Amino acid sequence: MITARPKDYFSFLGLPRKLNIDMADLEKRFRALSRQFHPDYFVNAPAAERRQSLEQSSYLNDAYRTLKNPSARLEYLLGLEGLALKGAQEASKAVPPALLEEVFALNEELDEVRELRAAGAAAEEWKPRLERARAPIDAKREEHEAQLRILSDRWDALVDGGRENAEGQETLRALRERMLERSYINNLLAGIERELAT
Amino acid sequence: MSKVVGIDLGTTNSLVAYVKDGKPIVIRDSTGDALVPSIVSAAEDGTIYVGREAQRRLLTDAQRTVYSVKRFMGKSVDDVKEDARLLPFRLSSGSVGSEAKAESGAIVKIGLGEREFTPPEISAFILRELKRRAEDHFAAAGDIDPEVDRAVITVPAYFNDAQRTATRDAGRIAGLDVLRIINEPTAASLAYGLDKRHTGIIAVYDFGGGTFDISILRVEDGVFQVLSTNGDTHLGGDDIDSLLMRKVLVAPPENGSDERRTSEDVQRIRQAVIRAKLELSERDETDLLGTSITRGDFDALIRPIVDRTLEPCRQALRDAELEPGDIDEVVLVGGSTRIPLVRRLVAELFGKTPHSELNPDEVVAVGAAVQADILVTGNREMLLLDVTPLSLGIETMGGVTSKIILRNSTIPATGSEMFTTAVDNQTAVDVHVLQGERELVADNRSLARFKLRGIPPMPAGMPRVQVQFQIDANGILSVTARELRTEIEQTIEVKPSYGLTDDEVERMLLDSFEHAEADFAARMLIDARNEAESVIMATEKSLRAPEYPAVAVELKPGERARIDRALADLKGVMNGEDRDAILQKTHALNDATTHLAELMMNRSLQSALGGKNVNQM
Predict the structure, then answer these.
(1) Cβ contact (<8 Å) for B473 and A43?
(2) Does the active-site annotation cover B206?
(3) Domain boundaries, chain A
(4) A2, B177, B344, B470: which could form a disulfide with B150 (CB 3.0–4.6 Å)?
């Protein structure tokens, strides 16, 4: 089973670098490769082969876990294409320009709610306000999901047409932008959840 | 060729199985019993007894007898303070631990007779007994090489790294090459998957003597893929026993505590409690030390314990992104699943009747044997893909845990983290490895602390030390580190904070040869006692059975008195040293109860066949 160290998760699983994946097909490939590499089948093999089986099998499991999850898959693809999110994500504590209006309104509402709560207001007084305040953020998220789908489909079409190098960078950059905004939105929503829960 | 077996090393009972020509076989003693009580006892002369004999010694030498040792595996003294109050053992912190370990708590040692042992050593006594049983079995079958030198050993799915490592160490101390540590619920699913080539989503609910696990698997193309697992390594039949015990032991305050009771009294009560528990799985009412207890009372008492198994089930479903309705089959494993309340609540949760066709006490060992067979034959028909039950992380600034490998990741799995230095020319970095889901370091399980040394002197923040974490197919962690600027590589031995070093395991293996087990004669005596006990138990069960009064009228005059006399005679000699007397009285009791057994059998057949006499068939 001597196999060279694979280049990336997609090629290891024999898949093109596309963002829409047929899950049943992914599972099938995962099972087939597991049968090929799993350490259970190399218990009696020489040490070098045992080590290789452990490495390949670990790599396969990491690949499967990453590609199974749509966000992780996109993040991984961006990394492969030189547009890694990590670090950038941490740096983007600043509000994305596209969200300025919503974030401003939400923060105002949050401040008022906190004041109300500090003054001992009942839950039925501030809870509805918070619920109302999150509605535009929820709407933004929906919008982002839709944009991510459209951009993902566009990327996949470029891959199919063999043109991912020519026009791909632009699509990927747009995807990256949306991802950053989305993680900002998710943080906002998590903040509201925390406020509601306490 | 030497043999390989599958071993279920349980909290209450342990057993061993193997595969012959593709068929799993559970190894039993001469009385047909597969279960070896996980109990170890030391006689004054240093002889170590394991199993039934040790269980009997709980009633005569409770102070020299240890049970439920599985609860102590991979634990430090601090971890077991709670248990120590409930269990009558002499605990101390290990002198085995080297100085390096002192900072993170030392390994527990348990007093057994005049000596002290670590939990892996005590577990090794049980494993050696199972090994011997299997070797006797192969020798009796005329095998030219009956030696058992390799094994697959099962652990609760929710066992952490330290507990798994302790189990592997126990196997090595017992002289076994541990081919693989596998999870109990997953093993059970393999056993169930054997005869039915089915496909679908299975939930395995494993409620044993000391631990609870839930695993959700997808089975397809012969691949048994665990999607999620959850559980509680501190929840089982033991807790039900303790609850009943507390009910019985409650004494009026003016009488003081139970100090007047000897350890043997407490064990007698404990065994009565266990018997009552078992009986209430078969009927609606029983007697517990002179007081009647109904199943209703029992259910109300244990409900909080059973309820504690339900949240892990829901969490496992959430983690697998499934609804109860998505589960195609529910499989029950572990002795505690015989309790009707458990079955009812599981059926309610998943909305379907659970499977229990296979003996819930034996199914895990069968699965371990199947896995052992896969490992040695390389047969690729079936494949087990398990997950790590707990997230693995490291300590970061402010005592916060940063997760590196998430729970429910398929194993083997890897993860890596980059470290650097905080001050100029720093040459070492501390790494603290943790397991658990909580945010704060203090709330998670500390697995190991180590120092990355030999970092080349550089300005602060310049070195880039990549630490690679590898969880192997046993669910056990290893760590390597590499300084990327200089390509200096080092492998770090990560021993659990309260584990044993390789040298210690080696020494214990040698020790075990010096303190050889009971000799052949003692063994024969034990076998005779075991048989006597099973005949006594069968007789008493018949005499207490609900259908007994109906059968009694058919007994000949004086027959019951003869049975009672034979029973008393056998009990009188059973704990003595005279093997011939035990055999003779066992034989006598067998004779005295032959007619009764026939009548009982006839009776149960009649009710099964709708009232016809067997002779009329």
Answers:
(1) no
(2) yes
(3) 9-68, 90-197
(4) B177
